Every structure is written in C-alpha cells, then in structure tokens.
Amino acid sequence: MKLYVIEENGAERICCMDKTGMLCRLKDMGADVGDMNELIAKMSPEQLGRLEIPDDAERIPLEKVKLCAPIQPKRDVICLGVNYKEHIEETTHVEDFQHKEATVYFSKRVSRASGCGDVIPSYHFVDSLDYEAELGVILGKSVKDISREDAVSAIFGYTVINDVSARNLQFRHKQWFRGKSLDGYTPIGPCIVTADEIADIQSLRITCKVNGELRQNSNTSLMIQPVLDAVAELSQGMTLEAGTVISTGTPGGVALGMKPPVYLKSGDVIECEIEGIGRLVNTVG
After folding, report:
1. 144 in the same domain as 30
2. Where in the numbering of this chain does the Fumarylacetoacetase-like C-terminal domain appear (predicted)?
3. Whether residue 176 sits in one domain with residue 61
4. How many domains does the chain have?
5. pLDDT one digit per residue (tens) for the chain, 285 residues
6. Domain final position from 48, 68, 88
7. Dihedral of CA 124/128/129/135: which sign?
8. Residue 196: helix, strand or coil by DSSP?
9. In terms of domains, do 129 and 270 share one?
10. Whole-model pTM?
11. Does residue 252 share a domain with residue 148?
C-alpha cells in the first residue's frame, strides 16, 4: 500500500492510493487515526492490506492536493554515512573513508520534516548547499537486540529522503550534525510504501536530478551496509522505537564530489526518486 499524508482544510489526513492512482482517505476505510505514527502503532502492513476501499468513498486526484511529509519523526533521524563505494571515492579529497572498518552512523535533527513540493530554505551563512538522495526505512515496531533475520519483520515501510547538507557547516564543526539539521533540511516523501509491496529492497534504482540534469544514478544493491544488517546492528544494545526513521546513505554524484563543486542555488529544483516508491521534488528558496 502507498500511504500519503495530505493537507486538507488546515488538517493532515492519511490517504492510500488505489489501483487507478487516486487517493482515498483511510478514515473512509475504517482506519481513522491522527497521524502516521499512530497508524504504525495500531496496524501492521498486513492489516492495512486487508482494508477495503468502499465503492462510495471519495477519490482525490494526487495532483490536486498538497502533500505533507508522510511521517514526522518522533526522534532524530538515524543516518548511515558513506554507504556507497562511489560516494566514498568522490569525497576522498575531503575525508578518506576508503579503509573504514565499520558503518558510519550519525543523527539528523528534525524539528519538522518537509513534504514533496516544500521549499528548501536558503540561509545566508550557508554557501555550499548539497543534495543527497537516500532510501528511508520506517520501523513498524519497537525492537532491541534483533537478528538480521528478524529485522525484516520490524520494517513498516520505505520512503525517499533528501539528506540536504550545508557542507561548510558540516566540515567547519568537524562532525555532521549541525550541517545536516537546519530547519527544512529533511524533505521526506512523496509517500510511504509498506514493506510487503517491495519484493527486494536491495535492487531498486535511486536517482537525483537537479534542474532536469541527472546527478545521481545508482542502485540500492550497491549499499555497503544493507538495510537489514543496519537495522540489526543499530538494535544491539539500543531500543529502536516504532516509527523510527533510518536514512540509509547516498550514492555518488553529490555536488561535493564534482570538480569543481556545483552547489545548489536559489530556484534549483531537486528530484530524488527511488524505483517503486516515488519522486520527491523540492525547490531551493
């Protein structure tokens, strides 16, 4: 099931997409919940799959609504750094991770996630704004000390995340937290696809375009740390709550890796897309 959050009369409503590409409100299907975190707490993907759309339910054209982020993270987003070989290779001039022995994890503060169509703000103190298309993983139940084999049952669904980064802040402070955590730097969307809809999460094309120019073009099969391994490792000694959002790293092709770098500027349109999930589009303000 593809789940969208739309803005309607000043409130947010969860909808699913029917077979014709139209949106139907979940409340019309018997699942009247306040937000995505409440839905995750109450229903599994399998239970959602058993819901039926009534014949008389209103159908809403996707192009007629304002899309919100499909989930608002309850805590910081957990991120994987340099999780694709080509991204490691293109950024060795900044920091060399070619011989790293373990996965790089960091967190990204999100006061409020942006949705598809929202503006990425410009800040006068940021002179090197960058994009990073990433696969987002949303957990459907709280877990701790789980195995890789059990990790699959903990996943509610998947989304697209643009890990927007202020490179000058990222490297000035010698860590990545501030440069990736400014307001408006976490667009998520356009939807969440429940885990049962994706046959193999490690075989999806992932791309990013800037003003129509293809910058990133890779496949989730090229992740160094696959999704299930990351979930299992993160859970060792650390409780991961239902609704936890994990961003699994970006492939090569970011502005930082270009020679010379071509950073984002006001008016640029960024399209992050993952096969089977959808396209997240934002414009720099």
Report:
1. no
2. 77-284
3. no
4. 2
5. 999 999 998 899 999 999 999 999 999 999 989 999 999 999 999 999 999 999 999 999 999 999 999 999 999 999 999 999 999 999 888 887 887 889 999 999 999 999 999 999 999 999 999 999 999 999 999 999 999 999 999 999 999 999 999 999 999 998 899 999 999 999 999 999 999 999 999 999 999 999 999 999 999 999 999 999 999 999 999 999 999 999 999 999 999 999 999 999 999 999 999 999 999 999 999
6. 68
7. negative
8. helix
9. yes
10. 0.97
11. yes
Question: Do residues 85 and 28 share a domain?
Answer: no
DSSP string, 62-86: GGGSEEEPS---SSPEEEEES-BHH
- Domain of residue 269: give its range: 77-284
From residue 92, alpha-carbon distances to 18, 97, 164, 258 in Å are 45, 7, 20, 12
Amino acid identity of 269?
V
| Separation CA 31–CA 177 (nearest Å) | 37
User: Which residue is listed with tokens 């270009």?
Assistant: 258
